[in-house]
Design goal:
The chain is α/β, with parallel strands linked by helices. The chain is built from 12 helices and 11 strands. InterPro entries: LysR_HTH_N, LysR_subst-bd, WH-like_DNA-bd_sf, WH_DNA-bd_sf.
């Protein structure tokens, strides 16, 4: 089973079709089709249901996908680990919550770049739940998420305790306003909804935004309230228009740390990143 065939297979799955996969792999459609066909012949099973231009995973394809991702991740990770022992050449794919990325990540990445100048850094932001899934499916090497995270396949190294505060505009009563929050999968969202229920807010509706600035901007003009890390609020351009209220410890104290696969070989860059994040948050 060739790695290029597995790489092609996962590209078809991730991109949703042969044409899109060929563009991602910078090859022609016929190459993608022939690699998939040879892989199916080798395994003796159909990997996709084909319907028009689209494809859907067959049962055998669903089984193979997890193994393919693990094999490709191990191939990439082993090569990077060997190179990092020497001159620090390789790639590190880092995920982060948007709030953490805006507040702490720049200085930490600067430190990683200084110690590993030839290491290519790839960064993406998303909700904690999505980032956990991407680490588990080998799409990210590590991620900074809100915890605690308990999973048999993951390590969670706590780096900082973030304090969540209730934020609203002056002269507004948050109990009479909608909650403004990130989309499903955000750890802060879960705590905000729990606080909303526990406090008996008269307005149970919520508005979703995809960006930190969008949430705080709407809160600052009195459109609703939210829960946000204190340090994020203090450094926001909207801070002068915001009122901050302290919350009970069971809601406000959020352990935040770095997750990575428990069985992954040690990478010097991961240790550097963890140390840099810890320094940046003190």
């Amino acid at each position: 089973m060739e790695l290029i065939a597995l790489r092609t297979f996962t590209a078809v799955v991730d991109e949703g079709g042969v044409l899109a996969a060929s563009r991602k792999l910078n090859t022609v459609q016929s190459n993608v089709t022939s690699r998939i066909r040879r892989l199916e012949e080798e395994l003796g099973a159909a990997l996709f249901f084909r319907s028009g231009r689209g494809v859907a995973l067959a049962p055998a394809g669903r089984v193979l996908l997890d193994y393919a991702r693990r094999m490709l991740h191990l191939e990439r990770e082993s090569g990077a680990a060997v190179r990092l022992v020497g001159d620090g050449v390789g790639e590190l794919r880092i995920g982060s919550m948007e709030t953490f990325a805006a507040l702490h990540l720049p200085l930490a990445l600067k430190a990683v770049r200084a110690r590993h100048p030839r290491l290519e850094l790839r960064i993406e932001t998303d909700t904690s739940a999505t980032l956990v899934n991407k680490v588990l499916t080998h799409k990210l090497d590590c991620a900074i998420v809100a915890g605690p995270i308990e999973h048999p396949d993951l390590r969670f190294d706590e780096l900082v305790i973030e304090e969540l505060v209730l934020v609203h505009a002056a002269d507004t009563d948050p109990r009479l306003q909608p909650l403004i929050l990130f989309r499903e999968g955000c750890a802060y969202r879960t705590r905000a909804l729990a606080w909303q229920r526990a406090s008996g807010h008269a307005v149970a509706e919520a508005m979703e935004f995809g960006t930190l600035d969008g949430i705080l901007g709407c809160v600052s003009v009195g459109l609703g309230w939210t829960l946000m890390p204190r340090r994020v609020v203090e450094q926001s351009a909207h801070t002068a228009d915001l009122v901050v209220q302290t919350l009970p410890e069971e809601i406000s104290q959020v352990p935040t740390g770095m997750i990575y696969l428990a069985e992954a070989p040690p990478m010097a860059a991961l240790q550097t990143l963890g140390e840099a994040v810890a320094s940046a948050t003190t």
